[in-house]
Design brief:
Layout lengths: L3 E2 L2 H8 L8 H14 L7 E2 L3 H8 L3 H13 L3 E4 L3 E4 L29 E2 L11 H11 L15 H13 L9 E4 L2 H12 L5 E6 L3 H9 L3 E6 L7 H11 L3 E4 L13 H14 L3 E4 L23 E5 L11 E4 L4 H10 L7 H12 L5 H21 L13 E5 L5 H9 L3 E2 L1 E2 L13 E5 L4 H18 L1
Parallel strand pairs: 1-2, 5-14, 7-8, 7-9, 9-10, 10-11
Antiparallel strand pairs: 3-4, 6-12, 11-12, 13-16, 15-16
Length: 469
């Protein structure tokens, strides 16, 4: 592997202008530390030599040497004899964590990852600027400490930022129409609790997101599954099923659907909104994947721009899975019902995280490199599987985080078991079925892992597939 090296010019670009009133060595050390902490400079990257960086930045060599020494002392770099100063992260490696995924018989331990790969995880790399946003949030935190710390509807600053986010996408929104939740799943659960009672029917696509299915089933609602068609959403089928079943809600994922990656176009959105409105069935839209456009052309307008819809959003894919915040955008009397339902689940989201997310929404950092890496991983995974596993077919989505494979034989669950023995975690097609059965001819594979990991995973999957077929 070729060692990573950071040129003086590139580092100067990433650092930006010096901060007035801050000692030069401190500005340089803190700037590099934030670049490493945010993942914009990877660990084990060789920093520019002191002479070269001195010339590039127009500072003294003593300044650069002192900044590098400060980074070493704080654990963000190490000086290697003969090979310069390399970046690192302080402390031992932390557990990567695992996506909460309600598969039968699976416990969520957070322990060491499997030997090869966990392909149940659909979480992209962290967005740049997260650590800096938290540092700015800590500086703002004292303003809130005199209060109780409870903000059941969310901090005003974050509700305003989310409202601005919707308005910029063509959906005029006031902060009073936004409720902050502890993630999209908490938002979905609150909305379903407000709309439906045990025994009531709720329309879903099939396949659909497993944790949303679980939330619906836990409150006793009855799913009405509408199969997706080859090229996407069966809008007519959804409207017909909602009216015929007298459903209390329809819960859909029209933006880079999880797991298929399909994107509902503007015409389909307009038909869906009008049809469900005529049927008197509230439309709940899970927008969690909406910001994961990879190489899509002009995106359709949000569903709420076409008419009545309850929007549920999250920053888990757009920013970081560990930033457990989401929101519900709704109008009219439903807002109060959702808020009451939400209070039966929790009393509010953490304050510091809300301050940080408001900062991130208002000051987004370019994430071109992150998206380019996801495109490369998506295309590499598709090429690997089609070359290694004849008969496996998947459309390449223009957004989202996974590929949805049609298998030559309906052996999805058997494959999951065989792959697990080889150190690869997979989710069977049945996990995405609203009635937890069927879809044995399908398998989801996220492309959020590095290409080398995907290569090892595909080799193990191919061996497992050969064993069971």
């Amino acid at each position: 592997m070729t060692p990573r090296r950071l040129t003086p010019h590139r580092l100067a670009q990433q650092l930006g202008p010096a901060c007035p009133g801050v000692p030069a060595y401190r500005w340089l050390a803190d700037g590099i530390r934030l670049l490493v902490a945010d993942g914009r400079v990877l660990p084990d990257t060789t920093l520019p030599g002191e002479r070269a960086l001195t010339a590039q930045l127009g500072v003294s060599r003593t300044t650069v040497a002192r900044a590098y020494a400060d980074l070493v002392e704080r654990g963000y770099a190490e000086a290697r004899q003969g090979s310069g100063t390399r970046t690192r992260l302080p402390g031992p490696p932390a557990p990567a964590g695992e996506e909460p995924f309600g598969l039968p018989g699976r416990t969520l331990s957070g322990d060491a990852p499997p030997t090869v790969a966990d392909l149940t995880v659909t979480v992209p790399p962290t967005v740049p600027g997260l650590v800096a946003a938290f540092e700015r949030a800590i500086a703002q935190l004292p303003r809130y400490l005199a209060g109780s710390g409870y903000h059941p509807a969310g901090l005003p600053v974050l509700r305003e930022a989310v409202a601005e986010h919707y308005a910029a996408r063509g959906v005029p929104t006031t902060p009073d129409q936004v409720i902050i939740t502890s993630g999209a799943l908490a938002g979905v659960a609150a909305v379903l609790r407000a709309l439906a009672s045990p025994g009531d029917r709720v329309v879903l696509e099939s396949p659909s997101y497993p944790n949303s299915i679980a939330a619906l089933q836990r409150q006793g609602s009855r799913p009405v599954a509408v199969p997706m068609i080859e090229d996407g959403f069966d809008v007519e089928g959804i409207v017909t099923a909602a009216a015929a079943s007298r459903a209390r809600a329809a819960l859909l994922i029209p933006d880079f659907h999880n797991p298929t990656g399909h994107l509902l176009d503007d015409d389909g959105r307009a038909l869906l909104v009008r049809g469900l409105a005529r049927a008197g069935v509230p439309l709940v839209v899970d927008e969690t994947p909406i910001d994961m456009a990879l190489d899509a052309p002009v995106l359709p307008r949000p569903v709420a721009a076409h008419g009545p819809a309850i929007s549920v959003g999250s920053c888990s894919k757009s920013h970081w899975g560990g930033l457990r915040l989401g929101w519900v955008r709704a109008e009219g009397p439903l807002l109060a019902a959702v808020q009451q339902a939400r209070l039966s689940l929790d009393l509010g989201a953490p304050v510091l995280e809300q301050i940080a997310l408001a900062d991130l929404l208002r000051h987004p950092q370019p994430d071109t490199e992150r998206r380019a890496a996801l495109v490369h991983q998506r295309d590499s995974l598709h090429a690997l599987v089609t070359a290694t596993l004849p008969g496996w077919e998947a459309q390449v989505p223009r957004g989202g985080l996974s590929l949805w494979w049609r298998l030559p034989q309906p052996r999805s669950s058997a494959l999951v078991t065989a792959a697990a023995r080889r150190g690869v975690r997979l989710a069977p097609g049945a996990a995405f079925s609203p009635d937890r059965s069927g879809l044995e001819g399908y398998l989801r594979t996220p492309f959020t892992q590095p290409v080398k990991t995907l290569e090892r995973a595909v080799a193990a999957i191919a061996a497992a597939w050969a064993e069971i077929t």
